[in-house]
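Quick illustration for those who missed Monday's session on complexes.
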Amino acid sequence: MTLKKIDSLAIASLAIGCVLLILGFALSNWYAPIVTLLAAAALFLFWTKFAAPIAQNVSASANRSSKEPNETSFTPTRSKVTFKQVAGLNSAREELDEIVDYFKNPSKYGRFGVVLPRGVLLAGPPGVGKTLMAKAIAGEAGVAFFYASGSSFAHLYVGVGPKKVAELFAAARKSAPSIVFIDEIDAVGKARGGARSDERENTLNQLLTEMDGFESQSGVVVLAATNRIELLDSALLRPGRFDRRVEIGLPNINDRLEILKIAFSGKPHSIDLNRLAQNSTGFSGAALSTLANEAALHALKRNAEKIEQIDIEAIKEKVISLKKSGEWLEADMREKRARYQAAKAIAAKRLGSRFETVKLANDFLQDHESVLSESELFALLCARLAGFALWRSNAESGASFCESDAALARKIAERYIAIYDPTELKGGAEKLMQEAIMAAGDNLDSAAIEKIAALLLANESAAFEVL
Ligand code: ADP
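Prediction with adenosine-5'-diphosphate bound:
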């Protein structure tokens, strides 16, 4: 019960008790003792029903908060994961190999006075293997592994978050050499300011203090994972803290094949893993491993000897919605999508709209918050509609990705009209979109489209410079 919950009965019994008590003392006639007695009864009622339970609750929660950190005190584990269990992620691995080597040969690094990064931030979408990679580093290096989730530091009780952070680092130092892995660090490391939360700020400050207090030779390396790097407080990213960042993206087609080989190893199956890797564009490693598991469960349910393609067909949509990632593209749709994306990329490049890489699955044309010039905005609109223009010229039918581009194009066209041609407001966007489709159609170059489409089918992405 909280103070807010003291209802009218409590207030009434307290008020009546007080008034009767004063009356009892003020009166000097024969019924004064009876009034005092009634006052005592009202106050007794207030104490037993309301005040005592509150007092009990307060002391219980105080006890709980002082016990909480001990209840969840951090114990190290020995990770058995090795790099063999991590498929793909080769560039991440190259960056992280050094840490394994440092733990295995500390004297080598000491001799040259090399200072290792204290903190490495693994940034990437959920399910791409950040935790798996952290465990593999600890497993390969043979050092103690401490796991903590950022959200476990977010506490109701004041002071518990910072205390837990201090405990984690004390335990890691005691077990050094060791690796501390903080998953979802954004839960505690969000930029300060905005909606204030003193407890979170204190927890973040404690984390910063702990990282600053490290000796470079302490033998503790902190790894942290986030999929919202843009939310992190800049203090966390300063030198001496998480000053090394390793980006881990969604697996490409080759990586997906390797992940599938691991996920299906030990499972009897007749699945064409190459085809499965092709069809599962945009699937994360976690989604692929769930796909293998769900397919196995489905095969078991129908008493089959092994996992077959029908099991995959039966569960693929469920996995996509469960993992909120990926898209199923059969071979013909994959080719269609590759040409569609290639047309957009070529139009963008020719008309002067910059992007980093064109991807088979994802949208790669960035709409800008800032106001673009008239020609830049029109170029962006043309690029958005270039895939549509290609289909129109080939009399091909649409697909869902065409629909989403059309919706985005409409927004750009409306913005263009509002800024540069406000007299055309009524029906102006439609007219402009038609013009853009014509202009994009003029820039279609089938040889170039086929070349880029082939690249996209092989690698699922192509850099702006390659085009
Ligand atoms: P994250 O930490 O990025 O959210 P996890 O490391 O927790 O992702 O991945 C969840 C599971 O997905 C792993 O335990 C593993 O089964 C599978 N997985 C993800 N990425 C890979 C990968 N690159 N190689 C092999 N398995 C992977």
